[in-house]
Design a protein that fits this description.
- The longest helix is centred in the N-terminal third of the chain and has 18 residues, at about 20-35.
- The radius of gyration is 48 Å and the shape is flat.
- Among the domains are: about 1-45 and about 60-70, no CATH class; about 270-335, no CATH class; about 340-410, no CATH class.
- The two termini are about 60 Å apart.
- It has a four-stranded antiparallel beta sheet with strand order 12-18-14-15, with no helix packed on it. The chain has a four-stranded antiparallel beta sheet with strand order 19-25-21-22, with no helix packed on it. It has a three-stranded mixed beta sheet with strand order 1-3-2, with no helix packed on it.
- The chain is built from two helices and 25 strands.
- By secondary structure, the chain is mainly beta.
Amino acid sequence: MAKQTINIGTTPNDGTGSTIRDGGDLINDNFNEIYTALGDGSTLNVDTSGASNGEALVFNSVSGKFESNTVTATSTFTISGDGGVNQDITTSDTLNVTGGTGITTAGVATDTLTIAIDSTVATLTGSQVLTNKTIDTANNTITVVEADISDLGSYITATSSDVLQNKTIDSANNTLTLDLSEGTLTGTTAEFNTALSDGSFATLAGSEALTNKDLTGSGNTFPTITIRDDSSTEDAVSLGETLIVTGANGITTSVASNTLTITGAATSLTYTNGTFTGDGSTTTITIDSGRAVDDVLVHVNGFLLVPTDDYTISGTTLTFATAPAASAEISVRYLPLGTTGVYTNDTATGDGSTTGFTIDSGRTVEDVIVTVNGVTLVPSTDYTISGTTLTFTTAPASSAEISVRYMRLT
């Protein structure tokens, strides 16, 4: 148990400190831990009677108590080597470290023992003269310079010009430079192309990639390009034919400087609305045609309803799940529609603790409308968006109805 501290408050009698009972309980807990650690829980096993300067508490197994006494430190350790008899070193002994073949020892500083090799030992980086040694060439790298070879004239060097007689040269492991005017070479196309330094050969029967060549269709066969539309209808475009890209439904095309540009018509953003009054029983109202639940904003007395859950749309009829109350102010806002794309939404339910919810990617706080139980939240203040996570400043209450309306056409 860690030490427990009585809370004495900030100022006298400010009502923030521990009560008298709580403070007494903390004191008892602290003393109980001390008496358990240094005794049997009720009596301390510590006897300091007759203690004098320089003594320490030492446990007496006979009395079962910690008693004041003088501590005498003694120690013994054993050393052993690859051979010989193990030796015990006690407090009064001196451990001598003696050098052997090629090894010397010296006490060069306080509490420091230096062990070094002498000139009879060969090192990895040192320069020594070896005598009567056998070196395994399979596991060592031996470097020989021309100046060390006494009969250099019998060998071919990298820079010498020599005449070879009756020699076979392995072309797989050597680079050969040959003058084609001086002889005949045999080999495959692939072997010749590997040897060439300024290009490759094209063969009559082979398949090669040609670059910067003028070819005519009369004596050659060229593959066609197959194009396919959304309905999987295909057509083949042969070399020499023209592929025409035609625009429609607000899409135009143009070609300039080898560039094909496809342009979509600008969408006219027109917002309209309709208002109605509830009577407590009517659940249907007539709205504009061509609308879906996600491209209208429906408010009842200022509360934004959730698509599908609170209302549905069929043709020009909007049907409420529950009839708006008598005199309730109903507003239907029509969002602008483009030639393509639709509005979407997500719903979720609060649990009183969760603040992060997953939404569609590519969204910001400015192109979504978030409501909790019909109340529209303030972007950045009440919620933020990072990637696909919408985070509420305060977790929606348990069973709260959460709606996320995506205002950008997808």
